[in-house]
Amino acid sequence: MRDLPIILDMRRRTVVVVGSGVVAARRAELAARAGALVTVFAPALGDEFLELRDRPDVRHAPRDPEAEDFAGCSLCFVASEDERLIERTRALASAAGALVNVADRPKLCDFIMPSIVDRSPLVIAISTGGASPILGRMLKARLESLIPSAYGRLAELMSGFRGRVATAIPTQTMRRRFWETVLEGPIAETALAGNTTAAEAHLAAEIERWADEQPSPRGEVYLVGAGPGDPDLVTFRAFRLMQKADVVLYDRLADPRIMTLVRREAERVYVGKRPDNHELPQDEISALLVRLAREGKRVLRLKGGDPFLFGRGGEEIETLAEHGIPFQVCPGVTAAIGASAYAGIPLTHRDHAQACVFVTGHGRDGKIVLDWASLIKPRQTVAVYMGLRNLEPLTEAFIAAGAPPDLPAAVVDNATRPNQRVVAATLATLASAARAAGLEGPSIVIIGSVVTLREKLDWYAPREGGPEPGG
Ligand code: SAH
Questions:
Q1: 305 annotated binding-site participant
Q2: Residue 58's domain spans which residues?
Q3: Annotation-wise, does 335 bind a ligand?
Q4: Domain limit, last residue, from 165, 195, 213
Q5: Closest Cα partner for 356 from 335, 383, 320?
Q6: Ligand 1 center–CA 385 separation, angstroms
Q7: Pair 177, 225 in one domain
Q8: Ligand 1: does its nearest atom lie under 6 Å from the Cβ of 334?
Q9: Is position 196 annotated in a ligand binding site?
Q10: For residues 457-466, average pLDDT
Q11: Ligand 1: distance of its center to the CA of 320 in Å?
Q12: Which of 444, 445, 447 most suits a substitution to test ligand 1, by most atoms within 8 Å of the C-beta?
């Protein structure tokens, strides 16, 4: 993140605006609307200021600002093309400790003016860090059409009851549940429909009910597939659950960019491989899920790909079922499907393969036990999970079991991620080619003549290193 977004309380703070045109007028108006005391320095004010002229909180000084004008000043907006005036104002304002924004000159700015969606008291500020104001404005337009104007009313209603809720409902977890119930239910609908009095009455009654019953929070577990890495491949349901969770259990297969989608306040517990290369044993993860759910928490177990495909998700929730803890499973795009799409290798194709099998190439002591007869068949693609480490014995075993050495095969490393790499070769040459490329995994191995389709269908060309999370 390049800049830090914050929302400033500007009530009774001093703001200096330098300039007489439309931008200066807009800045002055915005600052005054937020409760600031504004002084506009300009020889004469344009028509854009007409509506501001009679406001007691906007003063006009028909001259350039001097050092003493910045005493106690928090923010200074400059909307002028006079380079000398810009420089001088910046120097004076900075010396007085004020933050400066010069319109259309990002390099001269201490802070950026975001695009604003105003549903006061609800406000959304959008910044592209100066990269593309147009993109910011487009997003603003979309949000404007997406968020009913009545949301401001809803926020106001909630704000009016915050104190009462804090007294009546003692724990933070319960208060959050309370507000969620309100927001997802008829009270919010009533408020959004404009029926404020009825909404207030219902809300008051609902607070009483919660205070009387003190319902203990019911914990539950969400077993969620996060897909292979690209955050765009997270399902809507997974995203919704990520926003709801109190605790998230994750491991190294969860891409950092996906972790940024998780509710910020949610507790995060890493249950993957430790530096000593030992994973938390399955039964300990299951026990942890049970314990956290019993504490009334909404626990999200985030899995790479799909939770039920080589993810041991089934084992993890068996214990939950035994303890009668409610859970739900949310599917994800599994690595082989992600790899297939982003490497341009269809797993089936009329001219190449009518079947595809998913297997694990994970072997104990380098020995891979697979049912070769069912794997090595014409017109069938094999996708191997966890095969990179054993790639040499794996490809050798395929050939020994009768697969043609020149059968096309590929490794898709870090599929769907900015650092995705694909090595396409044949069964005989794949292991050495992958070694030469220095692939580190996670990788999917795809074996079958469909691999040749990549020559035509390869489309994903990420920039190595890729964009920064959230950038
Ligand atoms: N449940 C997961 C698989 C977990 S097993 C799923 O459905 O995808 C872990 C294996 O998945 C890794 O060894 C690797 O073979 C594969 N894998 C996971 N993420 C991957 C990725 N981004 N690119 C390639 N392979 C991946």
A1: yes
A2: 14-113
A3: yes
A4: 213
A5: 383
A6: 6
A7: no
A8: yes
A9: no
A10: 78
A11: 24
A12: 444
State the Cα–Cα distance between residues 41 and 69, nearest whole angstrom: 10
What's the count of helices (H) and strands (E) in the chain, helices before strands? 16, 17
Same domain, 328 and 340: no
The pTM of this model reads: 0.71
In a domain, 369, yes or no: yes
Catalytically annotated residues: 251, 273
Residue 68 has pLDDT above 80, yes or no: yes
The answer to the question of residue 420 being in a domain is: yes
Pocket lining: 359 vs ligand 1, CB cutoff 6 Å: no
> What are the E-state strand segments in 196-305?
220-225, 247-250, 267-270, 298-303
Tens of pLDDT along 317-355? 899 999 999 899 999 999 999 999 999 999 999 999 999
Q: Is the CB of 38 under 6 A from ligand 1?
A: no
- Is 340 near ligand 1, meaning CB less than 6 Å away? no
Residue 420 CA, ligand 1 centroid: distance in Å: 13
Q: Which residue has the higher pLDDT, 186 or 259?
A: 259
- What is the number of structural domains in the chain? 4
Token code pair at residue 305: 């790909």
Q: Are strands 115-119 and 122-126 parallel, antiparallel or unpaired?
A: antiparallel
60's tokens: 């006009």
Is residue 469 classed as helix, strand or coil in its secondary structure? coil
Which pLDDT tens digit goes with each residue over 116-169?
999 888 999 999 887 888 898 889 988 888 887 888 888 999 999 999 999 999
- Distance (Å, whole) CA 353 – CA 65: 76
Residue 380 forms part of a structural domain: yes
Centre of ligand 1 to C-alpha 167, Å, is: 48
Q: Tell me if the bond preceding 331 is cis, omega within 30° of 0.
A: no
102 and 209 inside one domain: no
Does residue 206 sit within a domain?
yes
